Amino acid sequence: MQRQLKIPRTERVREDEELSGGDAADDPALRGRWHELTRDGVVSALGSSPEGLSTTEAERRLAVYGANALPQPPGRSLAAIVLGQLKSPLIYLLLAAAAVSLVLAEYDDAGFIFLVLTINTAVGAAQEWRAEANTVALRSAIATLARVLRGGVVRRVDSKLLVPGDVVLLESGDRVPADLRLLDAAEAQADESSLTGESLPVDKAAGDALAPETQLADRLTMLFAGSTLQRGRVRALVVATGSYTELGAIAGALQTPSAPPPLTQRLDRFTRLLGLVSLGLVAAVIALQLGIGASLRDTFFVAIALAVSVIPEGLPVAVTVALSIATRRMARRNVIVRHLPAVEGLGACTVVATDKTGTLTMNQLTATRLWLPGHGFVEVDGVGFDLEGGLHQEGERLSEGADAAVRALARSAALCNAADLDPAGGAEGQSGDTVDLAFLVLAIKAGLDTGTLRKTARRIADLPFSAERKYAASLHDHGDGQMIHVKGASEVILPLCRDTDEGAVLAVGEAMASRGYRVLAVAAQQVDTKTRPAADRILGDGLGGLTLLGLVGFIDPLRPEAKQAVADCHRAGVAVKMITGDHAATALAIARELGIAERPEEVVTGREIAAADAGLDARIAEAQVFARVEPAHKVTIVEALQRAGHLVAMTGDGVNDAPALHRADLGVAMGRDGTDAARDAADLVLTDDNFASVVAGIDEGRAAYANIRKVIYLTISTGAAEAVMFLLALAVGLPLPLTAIQLLWLNLVTNGGQDVALAAEGSEPGLLDLPPRSPREPLFDALMLRQTLLSGGVIGLVSTAAFAWMIAAGWSEFDARNTLLFLMVAFENVHVFNCRSETRSVFRIALAANWPLIGAVVGAQAVHIGAAFTPGLNDLLGLAPLPLSEWLLLIPIAMSVLVVMEFEKLTRRR
Ligand code: ADP
Ligand code: MG
């Protein structure tokens, strides 16, 4: 965006002089013109090298160019939040009331209304501000990592730390972290829809310089920040970062504020409806009052008081707070919520369709069993990516022949490989696909020096692994000739091999798979460069006549929590379906161990889905395991389940999972090993990729929904209570039970804190023992209506009776109102405990489980009693201290609502 934002230019020039290299990243003449340079031209213009920058140089540049990040959309400003508080029918009403009070020269009233407005606005704004800050913090909690070459070594770094001149490596599914000039590309395609609007992926290649007038959309040698690599693999040079990227230039236009979530929208409509109803009620009462000849002035006060009692002014804020508390709780349990309404979504799901690899299993593949043609089985020691482990055959050392065969297999697998493993680098030095990493570990165990091997056998062409193809291939120059190396699913590779008894080898693979091994075949071929360009053969459909080097069986241990988590889902009435690209036998073996499936009939394969027979929907609905599926099938599965009436949550990690994640009612992406593309399409992200977190999400989602209901119930039922009291008093000819000011005060001291405290209620035990609620169930349902009418009725009736008794006993109106106000505060304090559960008895819920609630109740009493003692304020509110004996007497009266509601819960439990 603005060049001025940067480090002062003079300082930079000095540094540049010292370092002499053509540090042209901010040369205005080059901006947006990188495509006009050749590959070497760009590398030298940026003072970089094919090995990337050194770490120190990268740090220096970071200080000069700043972080690779766009200025964050500021979120809503405080002013906007404050103004938002004022946009509510109640506020308009109160403002009107204040204006009328001024006209009637009731300055105390007017002043107090303004005071309440101010406090209400401040409290609401503060709560929303916190909720907003929370969402922003969560959004940035998922860092994007980039693979970058620094000093010739591949490292994973936060993409914010990229600088111009860095060499980055991208694979399919990676978000493009900055503007890049391609150096190498294999089968690369990028999704640039966010930039150019072009919805189809565009081909990319590391070609030569392009003509200056080439449009952004046609710059096939460039990748732009904000797009995603859909396919293939690239090595590329960072040419612009942060706001200097093409995305940065248009970022302002992209910062459209997001619409409020449907849940809040639905609630807004609900409050607006309530507002209209109350206005109608108020109008009717005014007409009545005037009809019986009351003075305009009295009528006005009656009307205002009634309006104040029935409009639930605190509801929207309380719901926002409830949602925001829920997102924070989920984050603590490793579930990041990307869209606020999705908070409670998992709780409602009836099916979870989950990935196997990495979610149910650890994704720490270890090659533990090899099968070599002519040499039989070989066992491999060691666990995970630990490099220690020997090879043996039935406990004996390998024969020379077997050893050579293992090395040949290991060499092919290490060359046809997209991962990096620095044997000295620990976890930091590992990056790439786990299958590929596991192959590298195998190669090291077999005694190969993978680093040197890769340098000497230069890669000429390569076909990266894709889940549709289920294999990978690459062509290498070994000095004494060229070779093709291939690895992939055995039933895909074996038909491409010559001189093998396909049936017999497949049977060996099948036997390994049914014991839970993930089986891959490795093959190779010497190529005769004279007959035909070999690169065409591997990139086209020309593969064939390969030599089978062997089968490799990998063990991917189950996650320790997975079995319990599946059982928890079943208990919660949520079906768990496993989806995998793996072999049916492997999948069933694992599903059995997890308690997901028992019988082979419960497995549907990708082939059956592709055949799309008439009974497919029914098959899908009944199946527990989907094996050998391709990513495109996942959408079919989701849609079939939805047609069967399910609310489907779907987990995914790959770039090809994005459509299914989008299509599912709730997309859940993997935050650690998942691709950026999957995360962008998802509603929720699991930071630990663990299936157990899905269960936590179900639990928290249901708790969030329950809490929102509690908050609504409290607000609506107390409003109803006040309205009942009011209308009853009016009907029997009593004076106004509470003044408008007193009602305002009552709502302020009680609900100001209580509703927020309710939003913090913990999840009730047993939430995971119930089936999911129906997707079509309304928030304000019959149960809530009944409880609202009952509790509102009791409070309204008892308080009116108390007021009538006091008036009849000859109390002054002032004293009667004062005592009634104390009683109402007590009522609302007691009633909030009713709201803690719709079913469970108050006495079964630990008080200590919600300290904010205790605080809110004690606080309300303290503020109210304090106000009664405060000169000035007590006059304004019509308050006076109550003798302790009277105050104590109010408590049992207020308990009446507890008794009645306990009774209601008891009869329902029966
Ligand atoms: P999953 O859904 O369980 O993660 P994938 O779709 O990743 O399965 O893989 C499907 C099949 O493709 C595997 O069973 C394996 O045979 C093959 N495969 C997986 N990864 C690779 C790879 N890196 N190179 C070659 N083949 C692979
Ligand atoms: Mg996979």
From TrEMBL:
<feature type="transmembrane region" description="Helical">
    <location>
        <begin position="300"/>
        <end position="323"/>
    </location>
</feature>
<feature type="domain" description="Cation-transporting P-type ATPase N-terminal">
    <location>
        <begin position="33"/>
        <end position="106"/>
    </location>
</feature>
<dbReference type="InterPro" id="IPR006068">
    <property type="entry name" value="ATPase_P-typ_cation-transptr_C"/>
</dbReference>
<dbReference type="Pfam" id="PF00689">
    <property type="entry name" value="Cation_ATPase_C"/>
</dbReference>
<dbReference type="Pfam" id="PF00122">
    <property type="entry name" value="E1-E2_ATPase"/>
</dbReference>
<feature type="transmembrane region" description="Helical">
    <location>
        <begin position="789"/>
        <end position="811"/>
    </location>
</feature>
<dbReference type="InterPro" id="IPR018303">
    <property type="entry name" value="ATPase_P-typ_P_site"/>
</dbReference>
<keyword id="KW-1278">Translocase</keyword>
<dbReference type="GO" id="GO:0005524">
    <property type="term" value="F:ATP binding"/>
</dbReference>
<dbReference type="GO" id="GO:0016887">
    <property type="term" value="F:ATP hydrolysis activity"/>
</dbReference>
<keyword id="KW-1133">Transmembrane helix</keyword>
<keyword id="KW-0067">ATP-binding</keyword>
<dbReference type="Pfam" id="PF00690">
    <property type="entry name" value="Cation_ATPase_N"/>
</dbReference>
<feature type="transmembrane region" description="Helical">
    <location>
        <begin position="887"/>
        <end position="903"/>
    </location>
</feature>
<feature type="region of interest" description="Disordered">
    <location>
        <begin position="1"/>
        <end position="29"/>
    </location>
</feature>
<dbReference type="InterPro" id="IPR036412">
    <property type="entry name" value="HAD-like_sf"/>
</dbReference>
<dbReference type="InterPro" id="IPR023298">
    <property type="entry name" value="ATPase_P-typ_TM_dom_sf"/>
</dbReference>
<dbReference type="InterPro" id="IPR008250">
    <property type="entry name" value="ATPase_P-typ_transduc_dom_A_sf"/>
</dbReference>
<dbReference type="InterPro" id="IPR004014">
    <property type="entry name" value="ATPase_P-typ_cation-transptr_N"/>
</dbReference>
<dbReference type="InterPro" id="IPR059000">
    <property type="entry name" value="ATPase_P-type_domA"/>
</dbReference>
<feature type="compositionally biased region" description="Acidic residues">
    <location>
        <begin position="16"/>
        <end position="26"/>
    </location>
</feature>
<dbReference type="GO" id="GO:0015662">
    <property type="term" value="F:P-type ion transporter activity"/>
</dbReference>
<dbReference type="GO" id="GO:0016020">
    <property type="term" value="C:membrane"/>
</dbReference>
<dbReference type="Pfam" id="PF13246">
    <property type="entry name" value="Cation_ATPase"/>
</dbReference>
<feature type="transmembrane region" description="Helical">
    <location>
        <begin position="845"/>
        <end position="867"/>
    </location>
</feature>
<dbReference type="InterPro" id="IPR001757">
    <property type="entry name" value="P_typ_ATPase"/>
</dbReference>
<dbReference type="InterPro" id="IPR023299">
    <property type="entry name" value="ATPase_P-typ_cyto_dom_N"/>
</dbReference>
<feature type="transmembrane region" description="Helical">
    <location>
        <begin position="711"/>
        <end position="736"/>
    </location>
</feature>
<keyword id="KW-0472">Membrane</keyword>
<feature type="transmembrane region" description="Helical">
    <location>
        <begin position="273"/>
        <end position="294"/>
    </location>
</feature>
<keyword id="KW-0812">Transmembrane</keyword>
<protein>
    <submittedName>
        <fullName>HAD-IC family P-type ATPase</fullName>
    </submittedName>
</protein>
<dbReference type="InterPro" id="IPR044492">
    <property type="entry name" value="P_typ_ATPase_HD_dom"/>
</dbReference>
<dbReference type="InterPro" id="IPR023214">
    <property type="entry name" value="HAD_sf"/>
</dbReference>
<keyword id="KW-0547">Nucleotide-binding</keyword>
